[in-house]
Amino acid sequence: MRLKLEKRREPSLAMLVITPIASVILTMVIGIVVFDLIGIKGFKAVVDIFLSPILASYKWQDVALKAAPLVIIALGLSVGNRAQVWNIGAEGQYVIGALCAAGVGVGFGTTGGFFVVLLMVLAGIVGGGVWATVPAWLRTRFNVNEILSSLMLTYVALQVLSYLVGGPWKDPNGRNFPATAPLDPSQTLPVWHGSTVHLGVLIALILPFVFWVVMARSEFGYQVRVVGSSPTAARHGGFDGRSTIFATLIISGAMAGLAGALEFTGVLHKIDLGFPSGYGFTAIIVAFLGRLNPIGCLIAGTVLAVTYVGGQMAQTSVHIPNSTAGIFQAMMLFFILASDILVRYRIRVIPSAKPAPIAKAEV
Amino acid sequence: MSLEFIIAAIVTVVGLTTPILLAGLGELVVEKSGVLNLGVEGMMLVGAISGFGVTVMTFNPWIGVLGAAAGGAAASMLFAVLVLQLNSNQVATGLALTIFGTGLSSLLGLSFTGRIVAPFLSVFPDALAKDPIWRVIFGYSPIVYFALVMVPLTAWFLKSTRAGLILRAVGENDLSAHSIGYSVIKVRYAAIAFGGAMAGIGGCYFSMVITPMWAEKMTAGRGWIALALVVFAGWRTGRLLAGAYFFGILMALELYAKASGFSFLPSQFWAAMPYAMTVVALSFISSRGTAGANAPACLGKPFLPST
Fold this sequence. Notes:
- The complex is a heterodimer.
- Helix content of chain A is 71%, strand content 3%.
- Chain A is built from 14 helices and two strands.
- Chain A has helices at residues 13-37, 42-55, 60-82, 90-107, 114-142, 146-166, 199-217, 219-229, 233-237, 241-268, 279-289, 294-317, 323-344, 356-362; strands at 2-7, 345-350.
- A two-stranded antiparallel sheet of chain A has the order 1-2.
- The radius of gyration of chain A is 23 Å and the shape is globular.
- By secondary structure, chain B is mainly alpha-helical.
- Chain B has one domain (3-294): ABC transporter involved in vitamin B12 uptake, BtuC.
- Classes of the chains: A mainly alpha, B mainly alpha.
- Chains A and B meet through helix 5, helix 6, helix 11 and helix 13 of A and helix 4, helix 11 and helix 13 of B.
């Protein structure tokens, strides 16, 4: 027998939903096998990473805190990816967003309150957006590949951070450690009483629905899909595809900047060399696991956040390194990409046995 | 400037250039076959740890380099199966490979942290290799000479051999190559494996020659610079060599700025320089509009024969 691919007329909606779930399950199964092979208790490792954060209710707030930046960044990235625009420098935009928020905080000294915090968050959005303007402008003006330019600017952003926290913004009372002074409590995001869950988590819960409405109902959402379907289609649609591309990059940058500002004002309250935590890269996985759908991003971001928290738990319980969570995340992405073909194609099994039996029947 | 300083500077630049030159050459061949593999950074890290690990276990750096090549090529096969067999999106799959390689190398590297490997013995007699002046020519690791030999070899292969011609045909017009009877998929598998092996060797230069020890994420984004290098070079081997040395000099500036004199600017400025200059260089190349003309026509597109 032989397998034949048959193109579906419409992408399969069922497969679109089933494949991400199957990818997560398959990752867990393969994880168990592989870890057993390399001498780590596979079953325990997988249970710790994927299930224990869900079962232990005291870990839920950690999951929410990790999910918020992932979801927010992934929302922005998925808009770009739909237009075949690849911003992989979200990590840099995230860092610049946080630094801009910190800049506002430094400027106001110990003055705080609602408007200062609002200004800090807005500064983060603007900062991330401006940082993404560079690849956006280079792409639309000079046709520079945005994958490379946005990523290169991430490394530049890391050096900007290193300079600021080690120089002008270094905490004078910080024992010469390269970090900003902790934020004044009046400059931090409000938190749900008795927990560490900050306002950013609520924002991450609302934004997917905003994005969903915009992408599904607005002219802009339509343009993004047209540009993504073919580069020349925009001209036939009667609009400039370049401005759509520009806009998707700015949006993804602004979202990453927002996430950075929220992480800074809501969780960490200071910036040091460990601030860049890879959310900008993991969000790429979130966007794909969420099938570039805003609600999908919300779910996928939560799943990835579980693996983050679970990875940390497994570090202490079965002594596996933190990087293991990264392997699982990459495996999920591999599976989801591999299963893409099931969405667009139908697999038909063609029996390769000689037509002999039929011939006999005819006789 | 004394002669010694100049020689030390040249030795530094050559060392910094070698990994990106190797990885860049590999990626150039991959892209010439019409495939865009963004997993270079991940393959370099896998190469770095597998080269290091094999050397620790065999006490033989030559076998170690083979291990690095095998490790890089094996990692690239993950990408190849997805992209060639399942027609997955090349950009996203390449990214996945980088994320995977980063995690895998950290996990494998756990048992090797703090270990030191046997260094390469020089291929030239000590009188030349250790000579304060002649070391500028004879004093390098064999990997450096390998990289330099591979430049004309790759150019010759692509330009003058039958296999090279087929590879370019596959990259320029996969459907035509398919209809003449060449196996597009097989050619691309071979190209991707070569790219993985070269990235692996480039990666092991970090863990076996530069430091020589293993550290997480030790390639520090050089894989991405190698990718930029291919665009920068307009898919030409000669220009790739020149570009690699241009970036090598920029990276050496950072080291010298940190170590000495011109600290009128913060060291972070120099550290950011190679990356910022990559963006500037890409802008120049892309704005002239000629770079695209040389890009393989099928770059990054899935191969979808009608039958």
